Structure formats: structure tokens, C-alpha cells
Task: structure prediction
Amino acid sequence: MSQGSMILKLVSLPISMILICLGIMTILGGHITPGGGFQGGAMIASGVILSILVYGLGNSPLEFSHTYIEVLESVGALGFIIFGLVGLFVGGFFLYNVGTDILNIVPSAIQTAFHYPDVTNAGIIPYLNIFVGLKVFVGLSAIVIAFAGFKKITEESE
Result:
């Protein structure tokens, strides 16, 4: 469907952006609401996949290079392992939930506005959601990009 209609092309990019934003929201709120890294990553990937299906692999406005995908996947995997090791060294178990804001990155204005203990008592769970979301987003997107590239190669050889 890479040569889709003009209406489909006109509507798909805003819908893709909405899906990506909803996925980011799901990842960032995953420790206090239903959802999290996997669900948010799948939503972000669905936005990218929609764009690839409508525009085609070469013409998609959401185009990712192979290097960019490799870097994102590596960051997701390394972050997950690093936070797992932090839990191992602090609590004695891999992925042990350390407790409060271990990186101390929450500004004081946000602490007072959002009742600091309620937001940061999740420990490493919000950070793990981000890294899991990255891995799922990249994994699902890479599968569709590989299939679309394979289809493009087979069409050119015929």
C-alpha cells in the first residue's frame, strides 16, 4: 500500500504523531497507571508502522537509519542492565527496586506541585519503563522495516 491515496497520506501522519505521543504518555505514566514500557513502546511502533505502510519505506516522513535504530536498541538494553545491576548492588537482587528518586533529577517545583513522595516512590520502575519502551519500539519497528525492505528488494529483482 505504499502508493496509497492522497486522503490516506494526509490523515496518516497526524494519526502517527498522536499514536507516538500517546505511547510516550503511556510509558511515562506506567508506574502509576495501567500500561507501561511494553504497551507504550508498541503504541509508538504502531505510529511508525502506520507511516511506513502508507508512505512506503523510502518515502516515509518517519525514517530511521540503521545506525539510529542500533543506538536506540543498545541504549534500551544497556539501561535495563545498568538499573538491574544497581538493584543488585544496592538491594542484593537483580532489578531490586531501590525506592526513591535515585538520580535526584526531580526539580523542587515538580516535587511541590506533584506531592514529591507520590511521584518518586516508584524507584527505578519509571526508568525501566523507558528502557523497555525503547526496546519494544525499536524491535517492532525493525521487524516491519526489515519486511518492507525485503519486499522492496524482491520487487526490484523481478
Summary: Residues 68 and 138 are 10 Å apart (CA to CA). The two ends are 18 Å apart (CA to CA). Residues 125-157 form the longest helix (33 residues). The helical segments are 6-28, 37-55, 66-91, 108-113, 116-120, 125-157.
